[in-house]
Amino acid sequence: MLAAALVAKKACELGLEVKPWIKTSLAPGSGVVTKYLEKSGLQRYLNQLGFHTVGYGCTTCIGNSGDIDESVASAISQNDIVASAVLSGNRNFEGRVHPHTRANYLASPPLVVAYALAGTVDIDFDSEPIGISRDGKNVYFKDIWPSNEEIANVVQASVLPDMFKATYEAITSGNSMWNQLPVTPSTLYSWDPSSTYIHEPPYFKSMTMSPPGPHPVKDAYCLLSFGDSITTDHISPAGSIHKDSPAAKYLTERDVERKDFNSYGSRRGNDHVMAREHLPTSGLSTSS
Fold first, then answer.
1. Where, residue-wise, is CATH 3.30.499.10 in the chain?
2. Tens of pLDDT along 172-192?
3. Cα(80)–Cα(66) distance, rounded to whole angstroms?
4. What's this model's pTM, rounded to 2 decimal places?
5. What is a single Pfam family found in this protein's UniProt entry (predicted)?
6. Comparing C-alpha atoms, which of 260, 264, 232, 231 is closest to residue 247?
7. Measured at the alpha carbon of residue 12, what is the angle toward residues 11 and 13, in degrees to the nearest 5?
8. Distance (Å, rounded) from C-alpha 153 to C-alpha 29?
């Protein structure tokens, strides 16, 4: 992460900017990252390039980094463009980062910044310039890439043991918003019929305190049979809910605004949403 921040610093000093059609976001896996980025004084360079912290943990790799610009989304759809995402997360399934990104590449954080500056994945970093400096000169990958010594020095000065202790000793304390949620003491969960996040599934209604136990599965049918290059996200997406999907229609009918659709992953507790899963870019079709 500090290497990425150093790339951002060098780019800003040369006058480079992220291309306007690129969506950027920063979602560290831990609050400690924010502490050492601020301690190093490098966070401001990431902010300058648009890499503002949007949250911690699972965000970008499950489609929770937000929408892309509507004009960009329209251009992708209308021209059948194979749009790409470059992320330092751990998922590169088609449509996982966003329904409009069909090609997704995993890279180190500093490479993510470099590709955002280039504005394309179709580039040879060895021979093609990433951009033009404020004095009109070509800027190449080597001009913004930090040395191992630069990285080691900033790590030594900015990543301190007390940061980890301060962050994790309070991890179970929650926060004011979470701690103020009203809770009704009860042995059983109190289902809210108006909730679009958690809904009592039909198979819970007949469940008894004594489960029937395991039993053999006989004469079962194959539900789905696919060829190559099919992932779980094609079958049951976890990413963002597309505005034209059946799930979006279900939520809209219940007065949920588009900005609050969230992701399929966050609505796993509602069987009505999950039964309406839809991935517009998957290219899958069904027949009966």
1. 2-168
2. 887 888 888 888 888 888 899
3. 21
4. 0.82
5. Aconitase
6. 264
7. 90
8. 22
